[in-house]
Each structure stands twice: as C-alpha cells, then as structure tokens.
Write a structure and sequence with these properties.
Blueprint: E1 2-5, H1 6-22, H2 26-38, H3 42-61, E2 71-79, E3 82-85, H4 89-103, E4 127-133, E5 138-145, H5 147-150, E6 154-158, H6 163-178, E7 186-194, H7 196-206, H8 218-232, E8 247-257, E9 262-269, E10 276-279
Length: about 280
C-alpha cells in the first residue's frame, strides 16, 4: 500500500495551478509557430505572433497568460493501492487551489451558487474527476477552464441513424456558431458515446491530449484530420478576425454506448488551453 500525505497533494496542486496559468505547454507553443508559417491572413499572422510573444512573457515573468484564470478542473488518476494520510483528498485539492490562486495572483472567478452568484474569493471548489486504476499510481492534472470557450461548448443526443455524418455536422455547427467568442485559434475536444455526462467528460478530457500525438485509432485519427480541415475552412481565424487558423487541433475520445443513442459533446479550448500535471 502506497501512502501519500494530504499536505503533499496540496503542495502539488498549488504548484500546478500557477504553472498551468503561466506556462503554455510546448505542443501548443510549437503549433502556434507552425501555424504562423501557414496562416494566409496578414492580420492572422500578426495575432499569432502576439500570442507567441504573450506566451513568452507569461512564462518568463510567471504571470497569467490570460486574465481569465478559469474554474479549476482537476483530473486525478489514482491507483487502488494508494492511501491518503492526514486529511480528505478533496479538502487537500481545494486547499491547493486556494493557495495557488492566492500565491500566483490569479483571478478568482468562482461563485458558490449559480443563482445567487456570491464569489467564494478563493476560486474553490474545484471540479474534480477521479479515475481509479490498478497499482499505486497517483497522478494529477490541473486544467483551469476559462468560460469564454466553455460557454460555447455544446452537447447533443444524436440518433444512431445520424452516424458519423451527424457527428461531423454537429461539430462544425458548434464551431461555426461559436465564431470568435472562444478566443481562437481553438482546440476542439470531442466526446462520442457513453451517456450524456460521459460524453461531456470525454470531450473535456480530450483537450488534454498533446497536439503532437496522433489518435491511436486510425479511423478516429482520419476523422480528426477531416474535422480540423473543415473547421479551418470556416475562415474564423485567429481572434475571430479571419484567416486559415481557426483551430490548432481536434482530439476525439469515444466510449461504449446504448443501442438507441449517439451522445456527442464538443468542448472548446481557447488558444490558452491550460494544463499542468505531476505525480506523487
């Protein structure tokens, strides 16, 4: 049995909150640079250059790359042979968020009730997803999600007869309706299958896959390329000012589903699709 201190979880989450908001991942930064070479619009090129410079300044000065430092989404991959000592895991995670947003001077954007809208003033509670796995692994990914992009995400319960064409149509309709609001160039996470909530979870998790990796399923890999091509034909472009770089990538995750359904969720990540990860 592997034993992990709750205080160590707090320290790790604190660190990851700051890192995620200030340091864009290498795969996204490299994608910015490659798109800068292929973008057809002069204004689009200028915006991509600004995003690259913004990322550099944020990384070097350890300052947030965007003023919307998001609602903190935490993915916990935890082995069944792990025991947490000295506190409750969710309290430890939320304390890490609380400390990270305070020490990192990150904007606190969470309200304790969706109706009455009183700010919690420490960006808690986080949205926490758990995946229980064999052995003694303990891995955390912190992904602060801004709501410019979250507000334009969508879910639809398709019928099985709509098939892959229905999926493609829904993805393109969602991105077209979003326009420049989610701060493109975007990353598009697509979840297909399961139930309503499972599809939404898959689409959020899909945003974490590095852009320099290929889907291990050849059919899904081809579908990702097709959707990315079609999305970039929409002409929304960087910051919504037109151009050929509307999306940096499309990542798809699937799961088994019911014979009568075809749930599809599209979760949009803005140009600053932030995440940082670590293990204990």
């Amino acid at each position: 049995m592997k034993k992990i201190k709750a205080s160590d979880i707090t320290d790790l989450v604190e660190k990851l909150c700051i890192e995620a908001c200030c340091v864009i991942t290498d795969d996204i930064n490299q994608k910015f640079k490659s798109c800068l070479q292929t973008e057809k619009s002069p204004l689009g090129k200028e915006i991509l250059g600004t995003l690259i410079e913004n990322a550099r300044i944020a990384r070097e000065e350890r300052s947030p790359m965007c003023q919307d430092t998001g609602m903190t989404v935490v993915f916990v991959r935890m082995g069944q042979n792990v025991q947490i000592e000295g506190g409750f895991i969710e309290d430890a995670i939320n304390q890490g968020v609380r400390q990270g947003y305070e020490k990192g001077y990150l904007r606190k954007s969470v309200v304790k009730d969706p109706i009455y809208r009183e700010n919690t003033k420490d960006n808690t509670p986080a949205v926490i997803h758990y995946e229980i796995v064999p052995d003694d692994v303990f891995h955390i990914t912190v992904s602060p999600k801004g709501f410019g992009s979250e507000n334009k995400s969508a879910l639809k319960m398709l019928t099985p007869s709509e098939g892959v064409e229905g999926v493609k149509r829904f993805v393109l309709e969602t991105i077209s309706a979003a326009g420049g609001n989610p701060c493109p160039p975007i990353i598009v996470g697509v979840g297909i299958g399961g139930t309503m909530e499972k599809a939404a979870y898959l689409s959020k998790k899909a945003l974490l896959r590095p852009l320099d990796t290929q889907n291990p399923n050849a059919t899904l890999a081809a579908l990702e390329i097709e959707l990315l091509t079609e999305i970039n034909k929409l002409g929304i472009g960087p910051a919504g000012f037109g151009g050929t770089t509307t999306a940096l990538g499309v990542n798809i995750l699937t799961y088994a589903t019911h014979i009568a359904g075809l749930p599809v969720s599209v979760n949009i990540g803005c140009h600053a699709t932030r995440h940082a990860e670590g293990s204990l």
